[in-house]
Queue: 2 jobs
Job 1
Amino acid sequence: MPNIYQNISSNKRDTVLVVMLFMLVISIIGWFVGQYYYEGSGFFMVGMALIFSGISGFFSYYNSDKIVLGVSGARKVEYEDAPDLHNLVDNMSIASGIPKPQVYIIQDSSMNAFATGRDPKHGVICLTTGIIQRLEKRELEGVIAHEMSHIGNYDTRLMSIVSILVGGISLLADWFTRGAFYKTGRRSRNGNRGDNGLLFILGALFLIISPVVATLIKLAVNRKREYLADSTAALITRYPAGLARALRKISQDRDILEAANSATAHLYISDPVRGSLGNTVSNLFSTHPPIEERIRRLETM
Amino acid sequence: MLIFILLGIFVLALIFLISIYNSLVSLSVKVKEAWSQIDIQLKRRTDLIPNLVETVKGYASHEKGVFEAVAHARASLMSAKGPKEIGEADQLLGGALKSLLAVAEAYPELKAQASFGELQKELSDTEDKVSYSRQFYNSVVRQYNEKVAIFPNSIIANMFKFQPAEYFEASEADKEPVKVEF
């Protein structure tokens, strides 16, 4: 399975790259904030922004799984509560050599699943009651294998880091824009905008663009990973048709997962918020590759 | 000066050799780990058999041939050594169990019994687990054997006696790596 191992190392490299990219973006934002508000103390603010994002990033690295599970209203199930489900997870863990993840359930009739955890030893796999009830054994097996490959490929680590950093940037951008309106109001009263006008426009432009860019990075990273997890799942189960059938059933499901929102959407096996936006949203902004394309690739394996 | 250059080359070569050696060791450990998983599942299955045999005997005590075949296959699995022998014994046991369950089919009261259903379910679950652990083991073995065979690893492997590992019940489908396209 050389492909899978190459994929893991490229994932680890991607993680470093993404973190560096975000640090750069955060530094630039910090610089603008400093230059604009505190007249020339740009580099001081760069330091502040880096320290702030560093601490929050460190904290969330160890707690992102708990946050995600809490937000989704997931509940842990032990072997006694759901022996059949645990057996399936056991089997997939044996077949893939990935340590058995903890199993969580969301009480919801829609069909969805996600995985989280910073490394395979702290893996968590979470399924809705709808997907457990409505899929057959081989299909559910495919879904579980898909989620476990996200854990084994270190996708869950990358994705949780990306969510944290994207959240951080949005927060910084938010502060800046709020502060900026406040400041321009005060300025115009004085009737003196000075050289800062250009700086403000540049900063504002950058701030408007950066969350969009951050989201696009998140999506681009994510869509490639869905294909990879699909093929790894096929490798684990030796039965691509199972996952393909599961995906088809999931795509025909019209229930909306209430616990999911745009912040956690990219974690799920199929886009949980698609129903509210409809299919008119451009391909660029969807967190998942089209399901038909995923099914087609599985069927040609 | 020349001595330093030679020394440098020597140290670099040593580091290179050590890294190859270490990667071989860690892979062979992985092979052993994967094998122990198969061992666990096979043991679980052999432990289930006496119960199953007793339950069937209660209804079909005259089918002696089947019970003997199962007992014989179980004994040979427990005494087998190495992936190849164990694999053969395991296949024998699988066949014997199949005929045991076929016998059970003829007794509706037996099939209706809850404990029999339970045993049957557990047996088929264990069989799933055996096949999944076999699949993982064989994929690790394939990786290890490739690593041992390619140059320059093969020199190190020869020096330190890294033997290629045996596949477990390698069916034709398992030998072929699954084609994955991205």
Job 2
Amino acid sequence: MSELSEFRNQTRAWLETSCPAGARGPGQIPWGSSKIPLESDVRLWLERMAERGWTVPTWPKEYGGAELSRDQYMVLIDELKRINARTPLTGRGVNYIGPTILEFGTHEQKERWLPGIARGEGGWAMGYSEPGAGSDLASLSTRAELQGDQYVLNGRKTWTSDAMDCDYIFVLARTDPDRPKHQGISLLLVDMNQPGVQVRPIRLLSGASPFNETTFENAVARADDVIGEVNAGWTVGKRLLQFERSTHAGINISGSQGGRSAESNLAERLKQFVPSRDGKLQDPELRERLVRYEQNGHAQRLTQKRVIEELKARAPGYASSAVKLTGALHTQEGDELLLAAMGTQGIVWDGPGLERSDSEALRTWLRQKSLTIAGGTKEVQLNIIAKRVLGLPD
Amino acid sequence: MSFSFTDEQEQFREATRRFLQDKSPTTEVRRLMETSEGFDEAVWKQLSGELALPGIHIPEQYGGAGFGPVELGIIMEELGRSLLCAPYFGSSVLAATAILEAATEDWKCELLPALAAGEQLGALAVTETGGRWDSDGIATVARDSGAGFSLTGTKSFVVDGLTAGFLIVAARTPDTGGEAGVGLYLVRPDDAGVTRTPLETMDATRKLARIDLLDAPARPLGEPGADWPALQRTLDLAAVALANESVGGAQVMLDSSVEYSKIRMQFGRAIGSFQAIKHRCADMLVEVELAKSAAYYAAQAAASGDPELPALACLAKAAASDAFVSTAASCIQIHGGIGFTWDHDTHLWFKRAKSSEVFLGTPDHHRELYLQRTGV
């Protein structure tokens, strides 16, 4: 028996006995926040997986990982999917800042931060965009001034998803205002539990408020919590964006989020709203759109698999821009199809006689307008592909 | 199942690509597409002898190299890049696959070694004047007189049908309809009752013929009247091969667009610096990559006997056809005025894209089949 199939057998056996019933199928997935209580099975699953190093399977053992090879990682994800196990831990800790610290941090920083991230101790927010710096991120104006052994931060970050439930925030801030804009930025780790950090919710078009504005007023960060060189934050921060994009794209192999449960069956959902005969949608236009959607989804899943297989290193390449983009467009098309099938039923989101799942479809459609904006807009992704992959000039 | 090509497969791709770059520059493509036979005998001999390409997927016991659909896909992708004028698709892919899938052991032993060696050419005649790829499109009748079979009907759009030394013809037993009654028959083109007429094709790099059959003598290749499943598998495998050819062509269209965008100056700057061009090129890349995933994976599925192959073949064919047609159209657009001249090479691929798009069934046809086969 090959080593890999032996690994598969052992993994399968261990998962069968170790994954509690309450961690299978749809449900709660932890992302590190200390402010969100975990269901008991979810906590148990997280602890068991963390102990084995499988919340961050490819990380070095000394920092909380299991040093799995890419092939072993793929087997683990396969096996998680097989029993419909949820990912034990997701979020910006294991997916964004963790792999960034792993790549750019000092040994001391890795020891201090990574094991905790691997165990899900602390939820992370992302302090990148500002009111005046969106796609042109390098124009950011939040300042971090070194005073003694700490940095003092002042400024305003926007679109900080989940910030109200976060314990830490990684912040791109200007550490040298006299240098050209790309060369005076640093990436800092900041504790959110201090009076200088204020979070104000931003209400979205879906009516929900997972977004926030986060204000720093003389907030402090330890001087040794700058990741990478001081003023080299643009390079480090762009790397983190690649981890973000590859997470959106479903090709980040830092955490074990490949174990997410399968997509719901859109065809069956559509048939609840529009006539079908012998299982076929009667409306030819809708049927045409559905099959294009299904085929695109299939090609998309195959591409994710191919990109992961072709990864030479742990860190993702620029392919993440392409896969993030197609994934976002695909998901949005699914939302559009469902709304098209719902027709008039799709314009009311609360009231007597409405199914909860129907009103959720509407909110999802609204919320997921963000998919071609958040994590870099569609246009920014196309620019990245044109410039970095195809080498087209500025 | 994985996508990854092994080191040996990559080396094989390299060798094939070098050969084709050497033997099939577009000057050669243009020369050969104007000839009636459509290919260069000497190049075909080299390709058959030195590289053993025609028998790549034919088992060793029948004189082939004993590889499979993945290697065949590699060759097809490279052929899509180079547009080599040769009877590879018609003979090595369509005819050889039909024999492998449908023929009796005796026929395999008789026909395959010469096909594998490139010494004999075959062609597969499925479609008729209506151009349909489903079983209802087969109207040619096979009659059994007791002393032997004879075929009457008209086959059309037969790839490499004019140069083939034998024809494999899909015909049905009298008074049958649909999938029942379809059989594959071997017809010798020099026999009485067989008339072959060349068709003037838009894509001159891929020759098509019309074949009129009037009581033409025929011999059953497999089980008379029960060959539809084998023919369907043949068409699926051919769709996977054609999908791989198409992604090769689509990549050329993308590369050519990008290269031109970098050197063509307007308004004092390279046109590739304009976002309208940048985004169009990026869109092309995305489309090509998705189609490649589908085409490569389908070839792996064919090689490993994956039960999902019928659905994956449809996915690959539809995605690759769409990607090839759309990248070729974009390539013309990005080249501007020069892009729609005869002298510029883009139209060679554009025409191949269009003819491959409908060959074996349109993307819509394959989307419908995909729905049926995935049970959506």
